[in-house]
Amino acid sequence: MKSDFGDSISNKVYEHRVLAKLTQAELAKAVGVSKQTIFVMEKGNYVPSLLLAFRIADFFKVNINEIFTYVKGTDGHDG
């Protein structure tokens, strides 16, 4: 049975996009997704696939860890 550990991925897509002076639509087109995908990702409501995360990092010419951060949750066990 799969356990929900509460892990998540935070991102800085919005910050990188704004610094690059791009619209959501422009970034979406550049990485091959819809504007809606960029919108929900920036709001923290969507975790991209690993492939998409690498595409975005490559587009901005940064290490993937500069945009996406793993946030460890808990498995509900104390030890």
Notes on the protein architecture:
- InterPro entries: Cro/C1-type_HTH (IPR001387), Lambda_DNA-bd_dom_sf (IPR010982).
- Residues 13-67 form the HTH cro/C1-type domain.
- The protein has 79 residues and is mainly alpha-helical.
- It is 48% helix and 10% strand.
- The chain is built from 5 helices and 2 strands.
- Strands 1-2 form a two-stranded antiparallel sheet.
- The mean pLDDT is 91.
Strand-residue proportion: 5-15%
Which sequence of SSEs, written as H and E, runs from N to C? EHHHHHE
Number of self-contained structural domains: 1
Give a short account of the largest sheet.
2 strands, antiparallel
Q: State mean pLDDT (0 to 100 scale).
A: 91
Compute the gyration radius: what is it? 14 Å
Topology summary:
Layout: E1 8-11, H1 13-19, H2 24-31, H3 35-42, H4 50-60, H5 64-67, E2 68-71
Antiparallel strand pairs: 1-2
What is shown here, in short?
One of its GO terms (molecular function) is DNA binding. With 79 residues, the chain is mainly alpha-helical.
Using brief descriptors, characterize the structure shown.
mainly alpha; 79 residues; DNA binding; Cro/C1-type_HTH; Transcriptional regulator; 434 Repressor (Amino-terminal Domain); two-stranded antiparallel sheet; Lambda_DNA-bd_dom_sf; 5 helices
